[in-house]
């Protein structure tokens, strides 16, 4: 009996296990179906490329931050320099246009001078004679007032038109009658000579200067914001400020030949 048990145990150890493929597949299938699946995240390749570029850019910027800042500063400086150059060029063009306007204003001044003679004719007076020396002095006075930003018959040094007459070939023995007019706006447009005349005709003292019986010669000259009438006379005129002249004409009786 014991011999049979020993033989059975020996046969069991030496025997090969039987392999049932069907049973294995069923067991594997059962295992697979019962296992937990981990979902895969799918990223479109275009988005992946963009993400990669972003990561590389951030990394590059972190490594080259100082160089980027320097480049930005250099670029901003060049933009500022370009803007300044454009502003300077625009200013030059404006100045050229204003200068051309002031150069061409001699024709305007002569037309305004003809307007004065029309007004004189309406008041029974002889026309005035255009005088080139008077014109040059008138332009000089207008330019001086404009460039030095004052508006008066008397300069900051206390001089009147008569003090400069000799520089333009006018005899020192002659006196100068002077009307001045100023106009300014935010666009820098020049004064108009005809507007100056209309303004003078509404002022007693200035009207009298335009409608005096006679002058040796006269002219109107403008420079940008200022216009000046110059009349050359043998009579003596007082060198007075605009305020003094206004006070005089507010109190003086009617003058000989005053219209």
Describe this structure in words.
Strands 1-3-2 form a three-stranded antiparallel beta sheet. It has a domain at 103-251: CAP (Pathogenesis-related Protein p14a). The chain has helices at 2-14, 21-34, 45-63, 65-103, 105-122, 132-147, 162-165, 193-201, 204-210, 242-249; strands spanning 175-182, 217-223, 226-233. It has 259 residues and is mainly alpha-helical. It is built from ten helices and three strands.
List keywords for this structure.
mainly alpha, Pathogenesis-related Protein p14a, rod-shaped
Short description:
The protein is mainly alpha-helical.
Q: How would you summarize the topology of this molecule?
A:
Blueprint: H1 2-14, H2 21-34, H3 45-63, H4 65-103, H5 105-122, H6 132-147, H7 162-165, E1 175-182, H8 193-201, H9 204-210, E2 217-223, E3 226-233, H10 242-249
Antiparallel strand pairs: 1-3, 2-3
Query: Roughly what is the average pLDDT, rounded to an integer?
Result: 80
**Separation of termini?**
170 Å
Q: Do you know the CATH topology of the domain at 103-251? A: Pathogenesis-related Protein p14a
pLDDT under 50 segments (min length 5)?
Answer: 26-34
Strand order of the largest sheet: 1-3-2
Largest pleated sheet:
3 strands, antiparallel
Quickly count the helices: 10
Structural class: mainly alpha
Q: How many extended strands?
A: 3
């Amino acid at each position: 009996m014991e011999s049979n048990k020993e033989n059975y145990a020996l046969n069991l150890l030496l025997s090969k296990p039987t392999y049932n493929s069907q049973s294995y597949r069923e067991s594997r299938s059962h295992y697979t179906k019962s296992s937990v699946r981990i979902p895969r995240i799918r990223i479109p390749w275009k988005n992946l490329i963009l993400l990669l570029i972003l990561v590389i850019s951030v990394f590059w910027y972190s490594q080259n931050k100082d160089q980027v800042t320097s480049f930005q500063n250099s670029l901003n400086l060049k933009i500022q320099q370009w803007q300044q150059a454009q502003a300077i060029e625009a200013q030059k063009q404006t100045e050229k246009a204003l200068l051309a306007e002031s150069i061409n204003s001699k024709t305007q001044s002569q037309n305004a001078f003809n307007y004065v003679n029309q007004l004189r004719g309406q008041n029974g007076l002889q026309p005035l004679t255009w005088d080139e020396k008077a014109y040059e002095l008138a332009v000089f006075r207008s330019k001086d007032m404009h460039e030095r930003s004052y508006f008066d018959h008397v300069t900051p040094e206390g001089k009147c038109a008569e003090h400069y007459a000799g520089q333009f070939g006018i005899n020192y023995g002659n006196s100068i009658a002077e009307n001045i007019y100023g106009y300014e706006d935010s666009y820098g447009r020049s004064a108009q000579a005809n507007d100056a005349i209309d303004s003078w005709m509404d002022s007693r003292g200035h009207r009298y200067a335009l409608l005096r019986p006679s002058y040796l010669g006269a002219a109107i000259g403008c420079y940008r914001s200022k216009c000046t009438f110059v009349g050359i006379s043998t009579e003596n005129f007082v060198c007075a400020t605009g305020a003094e002249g206004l006070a005089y004409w507010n109190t003086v009786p009617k003058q000989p030949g005053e219209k």
